[in-house]
Amino acid sequence: MGKEMMIQATEIAGGQWQLFRDALKSADLPADDIDLPGRTFFEFTLDSETVAWGGFETHGTDGLLRSLVVVSTHRSKGVGVTVLRVIEAKAAELGIARLHLLTTTASGFFEQQGYAANQRGSAPPLISQTEQFMGLCPGSACYMCKALSANARK
């Protein structure tokens, strides 16, 4: 296989917010709550070109993966996997032991990356009370979870 992708993650600030909102809207992902406290979002670049956006919400030792979107011209090239690994590493650095998510279209991708589908009612209280769970994502969205450290409980 080829050399590892050198994707850079930069926390979103300033004028990047509108570009991020536009990327979310073009991917039909929720953007209404991205500027609330407790959220960390990144722009991901490869050779100075934006290839993806994504981040997470922090809720104690649990995190909620938010809005991972890969620019269409970079899909199916391993960018999503690399970006997800970076997000997981950054979440773990902040003490997040488990990463949760809701998806309507990418459960297969996340399952391949070690996420397990669970009953929505099994989510921890702080996760189930997020904007995503309470209404931004439809009730039909698949709830998934992954332990980021060996010490985390499922």
UniProtKB/TrEMBL annotation:
It comes from the Bacteria. Pfam families: Acetyltransf_1. Keywords: Acyltransferase, Transferase. Its EC number is 2.3.1.-. Residues 4-149 form the N-acetyltransferase domain. InterPro entries: Acyl_CoA_acyltransferase, GNAT_dom. One of its GO terms (molecular function) is acyltransferase activity. This is GNAT family N-acetyltransferase. It comes from Pseudomonas tensinigenes.
